[in-house]
Amino acid sequence: MSATSTTSTASTMSTTGRPLALVTGASSGIGYELAKLFAADGHDVVITATQRAGLERTAAELRAAGAEAIIVEADLTDYDGVEALYAAVQATGRPLAAAALNAGVGLGGYFVGGTDLQRELSMIQLNAVSQVHLTKRLLPDMVARGSGRLLYTASISGTMPTPYETVYGATKAFLISFAEAVKSEVKDSGVSITLLMPGQVDTNFWPRAGMLDNKLGVGEKAKPDDVAKEGYDAMKDGKDRIVAGMMSSKFIGNVINNVAPDTVKADLHAGQARPGSGVKE
Ligand SMILES: NC(=O)c1ccc[n+]([C@@H]2O[C@H](COP(=O)([O-])OP(=O)(O)OC[C@H]3O[C@@H](n4cnc5c(N)ncnc54)[C@H](OP(=O)(O)O)[C@@H]3O)[C@@H](O)[C@H]2O)c1
Questions:
Q1: What domains appear along the chain, each with residue ranges and CATH number?
Q2: pLDDT of residue 16
Q3: Lateral strand order in the sheet of 20-24
Q4: Total-model pTM
Q5: Ligand 1 pocket check: which of 23, 24, 30, 211 to mutate, most ligand atoms within 8 Å of Cβ?
Q6: pLDDT in tens, 58-76
Q7: How far is the CA of 103 from the centre of ligand 1 (A)?
Q8: Pocket perturbation via mutation, ligand 1, pick of 205, 229, 230, 249 by most ligand atoms within 8 A of CB
């Protein structure tokens, strides 16, 4: 699949003067909540994911809030899917005031003898490669205009090695390093770049990653609307990053992971993420 695009109104040109935002992974979870926050804050929104049904649900919510919703079905693991999403944004003829680059997946299991390589490579494409690709397309327009906001959904998983979701944490560490580097390059441009770094959030992420049998999967989680709001507010304030969600996540992301060696962090995470660790005897 590359991409197909539809809009909830006859024209994608703004008739209201509302700013335009993009949210990837807007069909569920944190992205769904971010899209609603953009709409409530006066934006029209380009929403994208692979599955139409979820996007239609989000579009209905945005329309109810008075926003225009432009649906783009796109598989962001695919180079052509990212290009088609960018083409759909350009086809609106409107500048992007903000983009929440949020789509991502996880994958739990034993790296040796457990997880599937193709799923891991696909996850790298989505969580890391598509973020570079979209940034390469979106950021130059923002820099040329001297305004715009980018919000990346990373994770506290990017601040530690993550055994039993080994490749996932590495994708988020890549994203954090990449976003920080780009931010430094454009710091005087008028464009803000913010990292949203949640701990565990109650979304489809966990069943999709096959992680319902470990301590993290069965444990307490933050609500996606609260996490999205923390990220949205941080983006509006032009903050560098926000560790969002439960107090325990904030303690891990803001304190422990800043001081503990990687080997210690890896062992702590392994105890929480080992397959079967959440199953009662
Ligand atoms: N939940 C957590 O505990 C947690 C913690 C830290 C960080 N995060 C991060 O938060 C972000 C959002 O995840 P979530 O928790 O809200 O999970 P979610 O509810 O599963 O949302 C994932 C979103 O990504 C989209 N997506 C998946 N594969 C895609 C693809 N190939 N191309 C385009 N879109 C795709 C999904 O839509 P379709 O299925 O329709 O494609 C969905 O809209 C991810 O980057 C995740 O890594 C989550």
A1: 3-8+16-273 (3.40.50.720)
A2: 66
A3: 3-7, 69-74, 44-49, 20-24, 96-101, 148-153, 191-198, 241-244
A4: 0.95
A5: 30
A6: 999 999 999 999 999 999 9
A7: 5
A8: 205
